[in-house]
Amino acid sequence: MARFPSTEWFDDVRKVFNTDESYQGGGGGACNALMGVKIGAHSFLITFEGAECSAAAQVQESDLEAADFILEMAYSDWRDMVENIAQNGRADLHHTLNTLDLGRPEGLSHSAHGDQYREDLFFRYNQTMQYFFDASARVKTQFAE
User: Fold this and answer.
1) Which terminus of the chain has a lower count of CB atoms within 10 Å, N or C?
2) 112: pLDDT confidence band, cut at 50, 70 and 90?
3) Cβ distance 36 to 45 under 8 Å?
4) Would you state the torsion angle of the CA atoms of residues 90, 95, 99, 103, taken in this order, to the nearest 10 degrees?
5) How many Å apart are CA 35 and CA 127, to the nearest integer?
6) What is the pTM of this model?
7) Where are the domains of the chain?
């Protein structure tokens, strides 16, 4: 059972996402983006290339500057989203990345570098990112905190 958050957990989600064709149609197909994920004190870089998620790595917070965009929430909010996905097989309407982004004054997605074009990749590939997190419904998860 993978611990959330960890590289092992993201790798398990990647395996599900990459091997299930039902997740491959989001965002119109190919997705090329480097997504930063900040979960409390934990930082990750997730690489999407074409129809696959090719890499996931835990990094130092300063390394998130390389990301096209960063998804950041408190650990409790991430846990709530992951648990909701596990219970429903996918995020319900209150737990989608889009709803979480729109429902927060500061948003869910932001940029470390001020490059609006790169930050816009979150909105362009939002459905692919949602399918990625929805794939976590098939990953047995142990919560760390």
Assistant:
1) N
2) confident
3) yes
4) 180
5) 13
6) 0.94
7) 2-139
CB 56 within 8 A of CB 11: yes
Write out the chain in H/E/C secondary structure.
Answer: CEEECCHHHHHHHHHHHHHCHHHCCHHHCCCCEEEEEEECCEEEEEEEECCEEEEEEEECHHHHHHCCEEEEECHHHHHHHHHHHHHHCCCCCCCCHHHHHHCCCCCCEECCCCCHHHHCHHHHCHHHHHHHHHHHHHCCEEECC
To the nearest 10°, report the CA torsion of 22, 27, 30, 34. Answer: -110
Share of the chain above pLDDT 90, in %: 77
Gap between the terminal Cα atoms of the chain? 15
Q: How confident is the model at residue 22 (pLDDT cuts 50, 70, 90)?
A: confident
> What's the CATH number for 2-139?
3.30.1050.10
Q: Specify which residues 44 forms β-bridges with.
A: 37, 58
Average pLDDT in the 87-106 region? 93
Distance CA 34, CA 49 (A): 9
